[in-house]
Amino acid sequence: MSLSRHLPRSRRAAAVASGLITPPASPQVRPPSSLSNTNASTSTTTLAQTRNLSSQPNRNPLSPSSTPRSTCKMSTMPAQHGHSEACCNIPPVVSKGYSAKGSYEELGGFKSYVTGPKDATKGIISIFDIFGFYPQTLQGADILATADHAQTYKVFMPDWFAGEPCPLEWFPPDTEEKQKGLGAFFQKNPPPGVAAKVPGYVDAVSAKYPEIKSWAIIGFCWGGKVVSLVTSKPDTVFKAGVECHPAMVDPSDASGIKVPLMMLASKDEPPEDVHKFEASLSGPKHVEIFGDQIHGWMAARSDLEDERVRSEYTRAYETVLKFLSKHV
To answer: Chunked in runs of 10, what are the mean pLDDT values of the chain (328 residues)?
Structure first.
């Protein structure tokens, strides 16, 4: 998908250009200063229960998500690998002031957040969103590493932006300066460019951690597009892919994806694109729309001080772990 044809002329266009939607007002969290039980022929697309959006006074009236797109209902993902519905021992999510449990290493030429037990034999490459190493994203990586008591993972999150992520202050992109900055960022960091670097990065990590025998990849926002591009390669090393509130959802990407693929969309991704993407997947899949969550609720833009957001953040990561337990 070409980003150039989506470059901003207006506030809405700027949001579309980045695959993001103009966020509602919410507290900003600064980054740390340190460095479906399904098979190939079946799937379930479900919508999470939606709250009364009219009760949210700070909602941007320009956002298409100001009103619900459809009637939403809660769903649960069937237990997998003998797990109960409560298979994952996810600790209480820290709403503010999270202390990351991992450490930073240089891997393949990239500063990388690494978390998980030393004896893990399965690994996850995590592609963060455009805002980089944020506490909400690091907490998610720590959850993935150890919250499934039956299967642990080593999680690796490389800094593709070399210490220059997109400033969260650029959202909403309501000035010409912000719009230009956002457009320049995506010109400098197009998802295909990063996708081309992922195989080499996995090789570098595997050389240092040869005990890891199987891999999954998860991507947030912009990183979701990277997951589509990487897992659609016929020689992909990944046994499964997960896209969380993915940017630039393109149904044409799905036809080449043969590995198990999960997509957890927010209310801000066009539902018609999500459904078309699902229909084009030929392998095992789980597609779900969290109908009252914003684009970014599993990563940097998540307002974990909001009880409902915190609950859906937790449920989303549990859903990811259940999917990976079956396919990785």
So the answer is: 36 42 40 39 42 33 33 34 55 96 98 97 97 97 94 97 94 89 94 97 98 98 97 97 97 96 97 97 97 96 97 97 96
- Beta-carbon neighbour count of residue 150 at 10 Å? 13
CA angle at 158 for the pair 152 and 164, rounded to the nearest 5°? 145
| Helix or strand holding residue 205 (H, E) | helix 191-208
Euclidean distance between CA atoms 52 and 35, whole angstroms = 41
The pTM (predicted TM-score) of the whole model is 0.78
Cα–Cα distance measured from residue 59 to residue 69, given in angstroms and rounded to the nearest whole number: 15
Give the number of other Cβ atoms within 10 Å of residue 297's Cβ: 27
Report the alpha-carbon distance of residue 256 to residue 154 in Å, rounded.
27
What average pLDDT is seen over the chain? 81
Those residues whose C-beta lies under 8 Å from the C-beta of residue 54, and which sit 6 or more positions away, are: none
